Amino acid sequence: MSDIKLIQVTKQYDGQSQPAVDSVSLDIPAGELVVFVGPSGCGKTTTMKMINRLIEPTSGQILLGGEDVLAREPNELRRHIGYVIQQIGLFPHLTIAENITLVPGLLGWSAERSRKRSDELLDLVGLDPSSYRDRYPRQLSGGQQQRVGVARALAADPPVMLMDEPFGATDPITRERLQNEFLRLQAELRKTIVFVTHDFDEAVKLGDRIAVLRERSRIAQYDTPEAILANPVDDYVAGFVGSAAALKRLALIPVAKLTTEPGSADGLPAVPPDATARDALDLMIRHGTSRVRIGDGTVDFAAISALLGGGHER
Ligand SMILES: Nc1ncnc2c1ncn2[C@@H]1O[C@H](COP(=O)(O)OP(=O)(O)OP(=O)(O)O)[C@@H](O)[C@H]1O
């Protein structure tokens, strides 16, 4: 199992008076997408890069599937951890297929196996292999290059992915499309993912859990998006959540996340399986009910109103 455990991890850069990351402990369960969100300079990237040893911790321990990452050879470690960054870093003189299969190449895959994998991944990220595999990066739009970046990180099927603001450089519409595609992918692949962003809406939309970080990467709150929206632990987190934006955020939360056990759903209006909490609320208001059906379960008004920050006056 590829869970990740940070145990009192500290990074002190040379010449800095304070550590960039100060004794951070965090458990990231296997198969979950955990988002680090926090203001610029709070140490998100530093924390993430210590997991694949692009940055070496000053002290503390990082376990990957129970194994100390510091005991592993860095290049070998990195071949098992997909890495996606904002400036994708595709090699301009290599074709898209060659870019995608860099790591499989290092792992000694045959040309045939690499070609198949690259076509499969292009399909997976929504690019037609026959029209894209032989192009060069400059012949693709920013959003398409970003998809190739994701495909490349997935190439050797690593159990763990680190993603640093991967959609940050794209326009809002492309960004939303990439987020949606990525959510669909992750529902299928269930990788262990650490995802860095400073956009709280993105964190709510993508995260199974969110770590809200304060300065020096200290964890202000670590919980599901729903729990953080409903009960921010303090003013710092509440400031991040921003109560005025709560209604808007309902449109980001799949109502399936809120579904309760199957009960009697006779006669209740139904929302489709991919509906958002906002859709469910609209349906309740239209039908004057406090419960709606989704699949085999139901969701009630209390679950939705909790997301609006019920009980936390600002
Ligand atoms: N190589 C370095 N040497 C010295 N200080 C550094 C180095 N890299 C980062 N820092 C400092 O460590 C702190 C954390 O930086 P980091 O890049 O991890 O933050 P971040 O939360 O990812 O920020 P952003 O959202 O702006 O990318 C910052 O104060 C930064 O100036």
Automatic annotation (TrEMBL):
<dbReference type="InterPro" id="IPR027417">
    <property type="entry name" value="P-loop_NTPase"/>
</dbReference>
<dbReference type="InterPro" id="IPR003593">
    <property type="entry name" value="AAA+_ATPase"/>
</dbReference>
<protein>
    <recommendedName>
        <fullName>ABC transporter domain-containing protein</fullName>
    </recommendedName>
</protein>
<dbReference type="InterPro" id="IPR017871">
    <property type="entry name" value="ABC_transporter-like_CS"/>
</dbReference>
<comment type="similarity">
    <text>Belongs to the ABC transporter superfamily.</text>
</comment>
<dbReference type="InterPro" id="IPR003439">
    <property type="entry name" value="ABC_transporter-like_ATP-bd"/>
</dbReference>
<keyword id="KW-0067">ATP-binding</keyword>
<dbReference type="InterPro" id="IPR005892">
    <property type="entry name" value="Gly-betaine_transp_ATP-bd"/>
</dbReference>
<keyword id="KW-0547">Nucleotide-binding</keyword>
<feature type="domain" description="ABC transporter">
    <location>
        <begin position="4"/>
        <end position="241"/>
    </location>
</feature>
<keyword id="KW-0677">Repeat</keyword>
<dbReference type="Pfam" id="PF00005">
    <property type="entry name" value="ABC_tran"/>
</dbReference>
<keyword id="KW-0813">Transport</keyword>
